[in-house]
């Protein structure tokens, strides 16, 4: 599948590293540990907040740096934030107003909190597992003054989210990065908070060239890192247009696609 051996492997989390129930399989855990023991560095990048990544890093023995909020926040396993890109206040207000007008549920991530209007809302159970925190209930975001890491528009109306994504990109231009991290999540982060910039910064922190990095992902927000890294693999469960942007494909997350990629690499290394 992959001709050259990377110096760093960076994996997305949801829909990629973990299964649909958000669990990390023993096969994937073992494969990553074997890869690290063979001298290949491993990192993670995700739309999740750091709180949703710590436990995975601990299981896999990854110290960092890693990327949260689509690469907008770089952090270490000990909790140290090494870099953070956040939305401007006026842009935050405009995004929230746009979601309100479209009757799309807004979530706000800021200061290590996940803020929502209701505790039992659409996809909240998924987010509890992903973010590894309980929502902080907030009736009104109008007085939000803290720097915002990410805003999420939540809806099962995929056509609506696709339309909002196009309209928001036209409206906000370079003031925000706007991508769907899941079919039902439309993410808004700072302009430099995208996975292309994120994997570039992670590579720099490891002291390697981006051409020596292999990335694996499944979502529309992963395309930016596919375009930046030297090698890329899309999961079998990714949308066809996402798979088309990667240099290689693997099987689905339910079939431990990340482990399959790593096992093939280890076989090439004769490890």
What does this protein structure show overall?
The mean pLDDT is 94. The strands form three sheets. Strands 8-7-6-9-11-10 form a six-stranded mixed sheet, covered by helices on one side. It has a five-stranded parallel sheet with strand order 2-1-12-13-14, with helices on both faces. Strands 3-4-5 form a three-stranded antiparallel sheet, covered by helices on one side. The radius of gyration is 18 Å and the shape is globular. It has ten helices and 14 strands. Helix 2 runs parallel beside helix 10. With 271 residues, the protein is of the alpha/beta class. A hairpin with a 2-residue loop joins strand 6 and strand 7. The longest helix is centred in the middle third of the chain and has 15 residues.
Strand fraction: 15-25%
Total tally of structural domains: 2
Number of helical segments? 10
In CATH terms, what is the fold-level topology of the largest domain? Answer: Rossmann fold
pLDDT average, as an integer? Answer: 94
Low-confidence stretches: none
Radius of gyration: 18 Å
CATH class of the largest domain: Alpha Beta
Helix content: 25-40%
What is the CATH superfamily classification of the largest domain?
HAD superfamily/HAD-like
What is the strand arrangement across the widest sheet? 8-7-6-9-11-10
Named CATH architecture of the largest domain: 3-Layer(aba) Sandwich
Let me know the number of strands. 14
- Measured between the Cα atoms of the first and last residue, the distance is 17 Å
What coarse outline follows from CA principal-axis ratios?
globular
The helix-and-strand class reads alpha/beta
What summary fits the major beta sheet? 6 strands, mixed
- Helix/strand order, N-terminal first: EHHEHEEEHEEHEEHEEHEHEHEH
């Amino acid at each position: 599948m992959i001709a050259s051996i990377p110096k760093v492997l960076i994996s997305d989390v949801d829909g990629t590293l973990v299964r649909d129930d958000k669990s990390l399989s023993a096969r994937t855990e073992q494969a990553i540990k074997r890869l690290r023991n063979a001298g290949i560095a491993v990192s993670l990048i995700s739309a999740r907040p750091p709180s949703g990544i710590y436990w995975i890093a601990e299981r896999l023995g990854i110290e960092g740096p890693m990327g949260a909020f689509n690469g907008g926040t770089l952090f270490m396993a000990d909790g140290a934030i090494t870099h953070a890109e956040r939305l401007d206040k006026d842009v935050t207000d405009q995004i929230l107003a746009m979601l309100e007008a479209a009757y799309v549920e807004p979530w706000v991530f800021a200061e290590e909190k996940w803020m929502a209007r209701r505790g039992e809302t659409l996809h909240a159970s998924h987010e509890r597992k992903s973010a590894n925190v309980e929502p902080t209930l907030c009736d009104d975001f109008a007085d939000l003054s803290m720097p915002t890491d990410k805003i999420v528009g939540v809806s099962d109306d995929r056509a609506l989210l696709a339309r909002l994504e196009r309209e928001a990109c036209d409206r906000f231009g370079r003031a925000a990065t706007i991508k769907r991290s899941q079919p039902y999540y439309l993410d808004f982060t700072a302009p430099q908070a995208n996975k292309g910039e994120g994997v570039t910064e992670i590579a720099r922190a490891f002291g390697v060239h981006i051409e020596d990095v292999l990335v694996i992902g499944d979502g529309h927000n992963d395309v930016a890192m596919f375009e930046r890294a030297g090698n890329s693999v899309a999961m079998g469960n990714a949308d066809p247009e996402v798979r088309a942007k990667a240099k290689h494909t693997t099987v689905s997350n339910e079939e431990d696609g990340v482990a399959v990629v790593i096992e093939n690499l280890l076989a090439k290394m004769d490890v």
